[in-house]
Design brief:
21 strands, globular, Galactose-bd-like_sf, Allantoate amidinohydrolase, Jelly Rolls, allantoicase activity, single chain, eight-stranded antiparallel sheet, 391 residues, Allantoicase
């Protein structure tokens, strides 16, 4: 790493990409039923986690033909078009889609549309095992007909898709829809292939059923937490820290580039803390304002773990700058370890709606949990922006 370049966002890359993927399989997203199940490959590939990019294996073939990493339907020889129903892993507000056609060059779907529904009590669909090469069964079609999904509101009208070459495979669609979504209907016109569908948004939980005496993870993706900004995400986006469960690997967490202003020879002070200038930060909006009673930080594996970390909370209307040095007490981290800081170690007891995590000097954190009780903030933030409109 001879020089540190600031990542330049492509002109066509939208802000909503900073939001969470509400449909990926790691948060419970799944295909409920499809009108024409893949003739050549398994459709649930389209919901794989963003850290699992589509692959192309030139020598891979199946009994149905060439293996492709995504959803591909047979060449249509009857009236209509192909579609599937997708259940979001995290219901919430959707700000945009990435319909990725990677490696589908002569066989991508030429057009697509997306519809949305909010089902309070969704029916149970039985996928009846691996039905690669077969259409949906009569019982599946009968069950989905009750949803009347063809009449759901359109989030994306019929739009053209570009082929899956590396310079044009990401087809971005911004959404302006202010209602909670639990299910999507993805329509392909008339047939073809899609490698990944990424659904960017913010989770929306029904907090009326949560007791004010119950401790919950206020920043969790499933509870509506979202990353609003960060100083560096060279190897991994900070939003990964609020994902479900334990991190699957090094890619499933926040990791920054190494700071180039670090000394040629590292020294420690009397407390054994490295004397390295600088820090990196990430700001999160909680799913619900609340009083944080404990902070859980899981550090990375030894190859990328952090030596120490600062954490502190700020509500939205307070100044939050990345140019001033962190002022809260220093918390030292051990590599590949789950650290739990309880109420006695925390200095802030008032309700907060936003938090800022600072790591010094650089590195990565696997998971961040902020346990607390939801409550109201008396002085409400003003001019609050959604991640889709401004990060």
């Amino acid at each position: 790493m001879a020089e540190r370049r600031t990542a330049v966002k492509a002109a066509e890359e939208p802000d909503f990409l900073q939001c969470n993927d509400l449909a990926c399989e790691t948060v419970g997203g799944r295909v409920s039923v499809r009108e024409l199940i893949m003739f050549l490959l398994h459709q649930t590939n389209t919901l794989k986690h963003r850290t699992s990019p589509p692959q192309f294996v030139a020598s891979a073939f199946t009994e149905f033909g060439k293996w492709m990493d995504g959803w591909e339907t047979r060449r249509k020889r009857r009236p209509g078009h192909d579609w599937c129903i997708i259940q979001l892993g995290v219901p919430g507000l959707i700000y945009g889609f990435d319909v990725d056609t990677s490696f589908f060059t002569g066989n991508h779907s030429p057009f697509v549309s997306v519809q949305a529904g909010c089902l309070d009590k969704p029916p149970t669909f039985t996928l009846e095992g691996d039905r690669t090469g077969m259409a949906a069964s009569d019982s599946q079609l009968a069950a989905v007909a009750k949803l009347e999904s063809e009449a759901w509101p359109e989030l994306v009208g019929v739009s053209e898709l570009r082929p899956g070459y590396s310079d044009c495979c990401h087809n971005y669609f911004k959404v302006n829809f202010n209602r909670r979504v639990t299910h999507l209907r993805l329509n392909m016109y008339p047939d073809g292939g899609i490698s990944r569908l990424r659904v960017y948004g913010v989770g929306q939980r029904d907090w009326s059923s949560v007791s004010t005496l119950q401790d919950v993870d206020l920043v969790a993706l499933t509870n509506g937490g979202v990353c609003l900004g960060y100083s560096d995400a060279h190897f991994g986006h900070p939003r990964n820290m609020i994902g479900l469960g334990r991190a699957a690997n090094m890619a499933d967490g926040w990791e920054t580039a190494r700071r180039l202003d670090r000394p040629k020879e590292l020294k420690v002070d009397q407390r054994g803390i490295l004397q390295v200038p600088g820090w990196e930060w990430a700001v999160f909006r909680l799913g619900h304002a609340g009083v944080i009673s404990s902070v859980e930080v899981t550090s990375r594996t030894p190859a990328g773990s952090r030596r120490w970390v600062h954490t502190f909370s700020e509500i939205l209307f307070l100044c939050c700058t990345d140019s001033s040095p962190p002022s809260p007490p220093l918390l030292q981290l051990r590599p590949h370890h789950r650290h739990l800081y309880r109420e006695a170690e925390l200095t802030l007891t008032r309700p907060v709606s936003h938090v800022r995590l600072v790591i010094a000097p650089d590195g990565g954190v696997s998971r961040l949990r902020l346990w607390g009780r939801p409550t109201a903030i008396t002085a409400a933030p003003t001019n609050q922006k959604t991640p889709a409109s401004k990060l």
